[in-house]
Amino acid sequence: MGSVDKTLFLLSRGGDTLIVPIYVDDIIFGGSSHTLVSSFVEQMSREFEMSLMGELQFFLGLQIKQGPKGTFVHQAKYTRDILKKFEMGDSKPMTTPMSTNTALDADEDGKAVDQKEFRGMIGSLRTRRRPGRTFGSRSASPVKRIFRYLKFTPELGLWYSSGSSLSLRGFSDADHAGCRIDRKSTSATCQLLGTSFVSWFSRKQASVSLSRVHSCCSQLLWMKATLSDFGLRFGKIPLLVDSTSAISVAKNPVLHSRTKHIDVRFHFLRDHYEKGDIDLVHVASENQLADIFTKTLEFGAFVHLRGELGVLQVEGVDNALIKGEIESQWTGLIALLV
Q1: What sign does the dihedral 286-289-292-294 (CA atoms) show?
Q2: Distance between CA atoms of residues 187 and 246, nearest Å
Q3: Residue 48: C-alpha distances to residues 8, 208, 268 (Å)
Q4: By Cβ atoms counted within 10 A, which residue in 132, 142, 217, 237 is the most buried?
Q5: Mutual orientation of helices 264-275 and 211-228 as an angle, nearest 10°?
Q6: What is the rounded CA–CA span in Å between residue 198 and residue 129?
Q7: What is the four-CA torsion angle of 48, 49, 51, 56, rounded to 10 degrees?
């Protein structure tokens, strides 16, 4: 059983590894040995009534293509389904999720929206797992703009290269009082394993400051502990921040006499910096990958950051991945319905 993820199980035998994550009544598993995988299938079939679904191609709304050069995950079918459901299939495509000229103010005199439809649209967007969407307001126009962006990019997905390095790093950003109504901030973090985009979040905060860096640090520590179950060891993990003040508070103990009012989680961040778990590193704003989750961007900057996160067009993926046979030493993932 995994040390931090109790739904993850691993087995090592004779230099081969079997990996078994469980999600409710579904099991996805893969291994470096056909013999080990076959043995697992036989043993589970004796103990449980289940259906063997074969190579993993579709899971929880995700479409998955595997190949020797990597794995491509996208939601093209789901995107087309929700565009059709909300009658946005014939809408004019937009190149970004939100205009940089749009100011999201309270529209007291605006036309009331259909709450049922609006909530349905928001729920459908939250079910999508591709990064690069900014959240709209309680007005139909920004939400429909996101749907028009999806019309422009239905085939985009995440590319996980088999040749990626196994270096762990995180990015943290906030727009600092970006909401024009209540002056609250939107903070975001994202974590990458080499060039593989693993996790992210974006939310409106009740208060400004280092809470976003704390969240990113916590996620990196969780990933570090989980990856140790796979035999991967990491030293000091870079956490890239574009705020020099955030770095100073975490690194400089002299400042703490003037920051006693700050939440204890900031000192949690400093503790892990001193232990060598993380290293707070300044990054230029144009290279801050988490920027895409906190603010509207011009098309060029938006596409640049989206590409840095490993978001690709399905047609842009190597044909060997789409059409070729699986030739890697791994058997590929297999889905089971228990």
Answers
A1: negative
A2: 13
A3: 18, 50, 44
A4: 217
A5: 40
A6: 11
A7: -20
Give the per-residue pLDDT at 8: 92
Structure tokens at 319: 């044909």
Pairwise CA distance, residues 148 & 127, whole Å: 17
Measured CA to CA in angstroms, residue 338 lies from 17, 36, 52 at distances of 22, 19, 9
Report d(CA 197, CA 168) in Å as an integer. 10
Phi, psi of 204 (to 5 degrees): -80, 130
In eight-state DSSP terms, residue 231 is T
Print burial letters for 262-280: b (CB count within 10 Å at least 16), e (below 16): eeeebbbbbebbeeebbeb
Q: Are 10 and 3 in contact (CB under 8 A)?
A: no
List pLDDT tens digits, range 164-193: 888 899 998 877 655 655 556 778 889 999
Tally Cβ neighbours within 10 Å of residue 126. 10
State which amino acid sits at residue 304: H
The model's pLDDT over 125-139, given as tens digits with 9 standing for 90+, comes to 876 655 554 444 445
HSE toward the beta carbon, residue 217, CA cutoff 13 A: 26
Task: Supply 94's token pair.
Answer: 């937009």
From CA 273, how far away is CA 280, in angstroms rounded?
A: 7
Query: Which residues, 6+ apart, have CB-to-CB distance to 136 below 8 Å?
Result: 98, 104, 142, 143, 145, 146
Whole-angstrom CA distances from 224 to 171, 213, 230 are: 15, 16, 10
